[in-house]
Design brief:
Length: 203
């Protein structure tokens, strides 16, 4: 857990490994005692988790997400699920307590516009090739957290993808600052690849 005072608000960032089932336990352990709860998802992502029983397998998954999940399972032996079990745990617990989870990331329309402005058409075309390369690449990691970071570095060889991540980090940090203006404490569940950079922006 990364704890940062933002104005008069106690902000706790909980880095999680997306996809790993056991990460949900971290959220449950950290849950109690906050005025507000947020996740690094857009409003549509939060809503999709709430409605995941009805949606069943109807989640949008990219080739890179599929490759990540397969390599994570191969290298770590950990079970991988979509959507993120950690974020599902937070949404479910807040719903049980009659609270709303704050969407800290861009909505779909804003993200799509930012993505199209940032990622070159040629880079987008190369996504299939990059996913295939990711299935063959020799990664050194053997634990989920290290692999998530190593995969992120591998993907960021494409300049546009790195810039997308940086823009998301700035947006999430801005959203946390906004929440901090009217809440005394916030637990923000953020994927481990983005968590430290968001924390540095807040510092």
């Amino acid at each position: 857990m990364i704890e940062i005072p933002v104005g008069g608000c106690r902000v706790c960032i909980l880095p999680v490994v997306n996809g790993i089932v056991s990460e949900a336990d971290k959220v449950v352990a950290a849950y109690e005692g906050f005025d507000a709860y947020g996740v690094s998802l857009g409003i549509e992502g939060v809503q999709a988790i709430k409605n995941r029983v009805q949606l069943q397998d109807d989640f949008e998954v990219s080739e890179l997400d599929i490759a990540y999940a397969q390599r994570m399972e191969q290298l770590t032996g950990e079970q991988v699920e979509i959507p993120s079990p950690a974020m599902c745990a937070l949404v479910d617990r807040c719903a049980k307590d009659g609270m709303n989870v704050i969407a800290l990331d861009m909505n779909d329309a804003d993200f799509t516009e930012m993505y199209c402005d940032t990622v070159r058409a040629w880079d987008f075309v190369k996504e299939h090739r990059l996913a295939k390369k990711g299935m063959k690449h020799r990664f050194r990691s053997t634990d989920p957290a290290s692999f998530a970071m190593e995969w992120d570095s591998f993907i960021h060889d494409v300049k546009g993808y790195k810039q997308v991540s940086e823009k998301r980090e700035r947006y999430i940090a801005d959203q946390i600052r906004d929440v901090a203006r009217y809440k005394n404490s916030l637990l923000a569940v953020i994927e481990i690849e983005r968590a430290e950079n968001v924390a540095n922006l807040l510092r």
